[in-house]
Specification:
Blueprint: H1 3-11, H2 19-23, H3 27-49, H4 54-60, H5 65-72, H6 80-89, H7 94-103
Helix pairs in contact: 3-6, 3-7, 4-5
Amino acid sequence: MNSAKKKRLEANGWKVGSTAEFLNLSPEEAAYIELKLALSKGLQDLHKSKRLTQVDLAKRIKSSQSRVAKMEAADTSVTMDLMFRSLFALGASRRKVVGILADK
């Protein structure tokens, strides 16, 4: 958000803060969520760059299309373990995975 808009909102009585502040997240919880979101985005980008559908990815990881959709949405029911395994199933190297996390 640009500073002019922030000042306008605050002048009208609005409180402007981060999502972590709004949800009262600890720094550790916020970091965990950011990592999960980065993995989710990286997974989506990688399977699209390989021109694979969610169904194609699901077959590779022996799962379902709905599970892949949940991974891409960073659903709370999806473990980071599954996200890592899925990235590796798509051919991502450890370096690529670290790069996905570092880009965050």
